[in-house]
Model the fold of this input.
Amino acid sequence: MTSIRQFRAEDLLYTSLANLDPLTENYDLFFYNQYLAVWPELFTVAEDLDGNVIGYMMGKLESSPPAAQYLTPTSYLPWHGHVTALTVSPHYRRLGLAATLTSSLERECEAADAYFVDLFVREGNAAVGMYRKMGYKVFRRVVGYYSDDPTGRREEEDAFDMRKRLGMDKSGEWERENGEEWRVRPEDING
Done:
């Protein structure tokens, strides 16, 4: 049995089971605490029966500055949710925990009238298929976004900017078909 609850500051001392995966981004304490202070409702944790942290979701709500829609319309982003980190300990994968954690963030974003939820994932990460099953679509490919390939096979790796449309995006403006073919450079993205 697993429980899902809001992340607490002391959980930072117990994230090792979830953070050992080489594809999991690790941040400094200030970064985690900033998310906890600003977006506590978007920072959740999964724990096992013994209270061990076996996964977590860290997210935020954001938008481009209003003037950006006129100055740089191709990179303007409306109010939306963002998955900053989602990780589940390898021993607890394929149990639906990632989907449960993601659904929690999506509900909060929907309640906040966000247009979509987005995330960035390495093109070669097996999680791409999981995100597709959860309803995310590739919006664009960010060429050479990752320059720290943990496998050591290449110098750079592209990122997929994947998005899931929420209720505020009634026209479907913030998702597209064949996003893998829509190539942009890291400096061309906003947010």
Summary: The chain has a mean pLDDT of 85. Strands lie at 3-6, 43-47, 53-62, 80-88, 116-122, 137-146, 157-165, 183-184.
